Amino acid sequence: MNGKDKIDNDRSGALVTEDSSLPRCPIKGCTETSWYADAQDIEYHTSDRTYSFYKCQRCDVLFIVPMLWDRLGEIYPKTYYSYAPKKGDVVPRQRSAHRRLVKLLASIPGDRLSVLDIGGGSGWMLDQVKCCSARVSFTQCIDLDESAQAQAAAHGHAYHLGRIEEFEADRRFDLVLGLGLIEHVRDPALVLRRIEGLLADHGRALIMTPNFDALDARLFRHYSWVGYHTPRHFVLFNRQSFTELAEQSGLSVVSFSYIRAPSYWSGSVLGVMRRLGLIEISAQRPMWYHPLHPILRASFAAFEFARTPFARLSHMVFTLGRR
Ligand SMILES: [Zn+2]
């Protein structure tokens, strides 16, 4: 019996259950959870398995079941885009971040700034950060990718091979980047508390994460919405639920904006086309390499651009400070 058999009635958002067979929320262990959607890995096809997303009615977050936090080698394929940042059209964080970084760094006081990128791979974002301000004097990367260490070091970034949860720092950071990070971790509250502890008094954290209240998330809810990034996104937020968790973690939201993620649209559409038998996508050729992807992506970029002033878009960017 899957979650759908147990409960299929949370569209109103009002259902509260204390069924002990339901999975507990990973934020606070809440028992008031309900089935939300089933989804498969339509991007990389790391397996044929169907995963379920549940919603915590208290925390207003989605979380995946099962959460394979101890099997990262299976759920992150070799072709994973984070390992290949030159495939720029599938990494929304690359382009959107530059102007934001210049403005953000200008707002942080100090002659010498230290910057930490959590999950920063080989440090390509830190390379950009260095270009954004001459005051950046120390850069540190934390990542689980062993193969990225040498490249990060060659570019002058300190590198910690491991998880943020176990990272011991002998300094505090003026800027902490967590771009596409918090939705990948098993315990987002713990990671936010760690970020708070690593921030200098006037420091800022820049967090980017998907928004499960976006239009594409709603339309493709039952069609393996790409923002689920099944099974690699463990916990998903909306604006309010992330704000509340940040505040409970000792942080305050200094600024907020939505960001377009046209790849979520194009990928979700490609997933539906594959389901209908119209195109072929496989582990050997992930959807991001399909020739239709750039065409669809450009179309949805225009659509998203047109509705940007009015809409709750697919990505959220929070600038956080210490409370
Ligand atoms: Zn909860």
Molecular structure report:
29% of the residues lie in helices and 23% in strands. The protein is of the alpha/beta class. Helix 9 (262-275) packs across helix 10 (292-307). The protein is built from ten helices and eleven strands. Helix 5 (149-154) links the parallel strand 5 and strand 6. The strands form two sheets. A seven-stranded mixed sheet has the order 6-5-4-7-8-11-10, with helices on both faces. A four-stranded antiparallel sheet has the order 1-2-3-9. The longest helix is centred in the C-terminal third of the chain and has 16 residues, at 292-307. The chain has one domain: 3-Layer(aba) Sandwich (Rossmann fold). The chain has helices spanning 3-6, 72-75, 92-106, 124-132, 149-154, 188-198, 215-219, 239-248, 262-275, 292-307, and strands at 33-39, 51-56, 61-65, 113-118, 136-143, 158-161, 173-179, 199-210, 235-236, 251-259, 315-322. It binds zinc ion. Zinc ion binds at residues 25, 27-28, 30, 56, 58-59.
